[in-house]
């Protein structure tokens, strides 16, 4: 119910369970307990922020059902059934509770779909309903794709990409399926309603089976479970206890640091640390999304006040000290003082010979930089840092390199 409320759903006064009848190796008892025409959560809506405005995504329903077993295909590419030599079935998760969320067909691009999935995962994690670790299978998604002409009313035949467990793979799978359907219609063909397995390694999606409709499952009421009739007082208490939604926080932050950084902070769970870390807002956000993320530390354990001191003095201390400070920032008793005591090499007389030597050793890159490939500046900075053991002042190194490369 908390998830349904977070997604803007109405909590039904009465919800019932049904048996969904089908046989598959991961469901050998021949039926799955699910919810059919009376689900628990209905008619929700989630605003998905974007650089060019929000996309309103309708939530048709969020209902309870039991999970199936996990099928492991041996010998096939990317663990898929096609080309596999055999299949093993792991029943450890079979029968455990699962929430299925069904969206309305409101998403119009792979990027919007990816953004929605990231927000959904962050919502689930923040509500402490699941770790939502996709590589472990505790969150996965099926993607339905159909295409139509610009201005066309109604929806054409859809296909389903099954059991995807990566945001990037989902986006690639959607883009690939859009291209496939456009090519089919463009050649005068017809798209068949079917379930596909996207292979991210080869970026193809061989058919798994024809797509079933509701009548194929022969739903009937589950005789062993009573209907759910949520107490209205409980529903309102749960609603009042919801945290601020991720999409609301993105809207609040984007005016301060821009949409890209705001979205990155919120969907990675680093925006709370951002709020606790003083300093130039854009500089802090960039460090949290780049260097701190690369350090792999838990943002919830970082002392924001101490981290802010390190970020504010990053141009004055050796890069090695800055990197070490970030790596240690989640440790108990972390103090910036230890790292701020180190001094970066800023003496031009000491740095110039190092820079001159590096430029003379990489004449090809120097010519390419002067020919317009200014992105090579980072390469030269890295070489100087390597030569000085990370103790050179990045600011001074950048200034001296730019000056010398202009000559």
Low-pLDDT parts are none
The proportion of strand residues reads 15-25%
Oligomer: single chain
Topology pattern, helix = H, strand = E: HEEEEEEEEHEEHEEEHHHHHHHHHHHHH
Structural class: alpha+beta
> What is the CA-atom radius of gyration, in angstroms?
27 Å
First and last CA, distance: 66 Å
Percent range of helical residues: 25-40%
Query: For the report, how would you describe the main beta sheet?
Result: 4 strands, antiparallel
How many structural units, i.e. domains?
3
Average pLDDT, to the nearest integer?
A: 90
- The geometry reads as elongated
The number of distinct helices, counting runs of at least 4 residues, comes to 16
What is the spatial order of strands in the main beta sheet? 1-4-5-8
In total, the number of strands is 13
């Amino acid at each position: 119910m908390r998830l349904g409320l977070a997604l803007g759903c109405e909590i039904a006064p009465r919800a019932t369970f049904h048996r969904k009848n089908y046989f598959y190796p991961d469901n050998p008892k021949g039926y799955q307990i699910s919810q059919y025409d009376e689900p628990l959560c209905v008619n929700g809506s989630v605003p998905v922020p974007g650089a060019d405005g929000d996309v309103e995504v309708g939530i048709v329903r969020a209902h309870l059902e039991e999970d199936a077993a996990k099928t492991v295909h041996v010998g096939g590419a990317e663990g898929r059934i096609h080309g596999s030599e055999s299949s093993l079935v792991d029943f450890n998760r079979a029968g455990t509770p699962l929430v299925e969320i069904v969206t309305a067909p409101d998403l119009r691009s792979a990027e919007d779909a990816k953004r929605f999935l990231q927000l959904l995962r962050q919502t689930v994690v923040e509500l402490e309903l699941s770790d939502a670790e996709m590589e472990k299978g505790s969150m996965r998604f099926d993607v339905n794709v159909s295409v139509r002409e610009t201005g066309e009313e109604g929806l054409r035949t859809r296909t389903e990409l099954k059991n995807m467990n990566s945001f990037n793979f989902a986006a690639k799978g959607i883009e690939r399926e859009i291209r496939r359907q456009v090519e089919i219609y463009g050649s005068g063909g017809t798209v068949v309603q079917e379930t596909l397995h996207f292979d991210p390694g080869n970026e193809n999606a061989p058919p798994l089976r024809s797509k079933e409709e509701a009548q194929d499952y022969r739903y009937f009421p589950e005789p062993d479970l009573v209907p759910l009739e949520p107490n209205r007082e409980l529903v309102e208490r749960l609603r009042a206890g919801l945290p601020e939604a991720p999409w609301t926080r993105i809207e609040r932050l984007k005016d301060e640091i821009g949409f890209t950084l705001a979205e990155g902070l919120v969907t990675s769970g680093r925006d709370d640390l951002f709020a606790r870390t003083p300093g130039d807002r854009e500089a802090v956000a960039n460090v949290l999304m780049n260097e701190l993320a690369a350090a792999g530390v838990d943002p919830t354990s970082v002392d924001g006040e101490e981290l802010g001191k390190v970020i504010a003095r990053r141009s004055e201390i050796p890069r090695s000290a800055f990197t070490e400070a970030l790596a240690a920032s989640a440790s108990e008793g972390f103090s910036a003082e230890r790292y701020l005591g180190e001094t970066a090499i800023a003496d031009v007389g000491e740095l110039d010979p190092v820079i001159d030597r590096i430029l003379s050793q990489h004449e090809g890159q120097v010519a390419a930089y002067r020919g317009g490939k200014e992105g090579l500046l980072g390469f030269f900075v890295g070489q100087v840092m390597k030569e000085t053991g990370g103790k050179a002042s990045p600011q001074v190194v950048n200034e001296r390199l730019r000056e010398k490369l202009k000559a």
